[in-house]
UniProtKB/TrEMBL annotation:
It comes from the Bacteria. One of its GO terms (biological process) is heme biosynthetic process. Pfam families: Flavodoxin_5 (PF12724). One of its GO terms (molecular function) is menaquinone-dependent protoporphyrinogen oxidase activity. It comes from Streptosporangium nondiastaticum. InterPro entries: Flavodoxin_dom, Flavoprotein-like_sf, Protoporphyrinogen_IX_DH. Signal peptide: none annotated. Residues 7-85 form the Flavodoxin domain. This is Flavodoxin.
């Protein structure tokens, strides 16, 4: 199985740490949106898309990249995020990116999110929230997520 992870991690490296763990399991390279090669993506069995969450949305660089993907790509994908606040069940912050990918023709297999260290105002005033996250349990959850994803996608490929 060939995989690539497109990751925009800008504040504290939270999302990159999660992407690196998933990349190890999936034997996938982890690249910034600006480094992603469209030709390489078209040869992948699985592509991950992730970033931190900013005001309830994925980083603009990742959003712009996903919107620039060609229409009709029938590829498998997964979406992941780190956030200072938990993902709301009724309005998950992963849903808009999943919908854009699906409109482009991608089959989004699953999503993953976990908490991350956050110093966005007003959290900066108290030294941030979720210090030490993603921690060992979060990284283990990311590893398990990727292993399960590899099992499902590998069985179908």
């Amino acid at each position: 199985m060939k995989a690539v992870i497109v990751c925009a991690s800008v504040s504290h490296g939270n999302t990159k740490r999660i992407a690196d763990v998933m990349g190890q399991v999936l034997e996938a390279s982890v690249v910034d949106p600006e480094q992603a090669d469209m030709a390489e993506l078209s040869t992948c069995d699985l592509v991950g898309f992730g970033s931190g969450i900013f005001l309830g949305k994925f980083h603009p660089r990742l959003g712009e990249f996903v919107r620039s993907l060609p229409q009709g790509e029938r590829r498998r994908a997964f979406v992941f995020a780190t956030s200072g606040l938990p993902e709301a069940r009724l309005r998950p912050f992963t849903r808009p990116l999943v919908r854009v990918l699906e409109r482009k023709g991608w089959d989004v297999s699953d999503t993953f999110s976990c908490r991350g260290f956050d110093t966005w105002l007003p959290f900066k005033l108290v030294g941030g929230i979720n210090k030490g996250r993603p921690g060992a349990p979060d990284l283990e959850a990311a590893r398990t997520f990727a292993e399960e994803l590899r099992g499902r996608i590998g069985a179908v490929s």
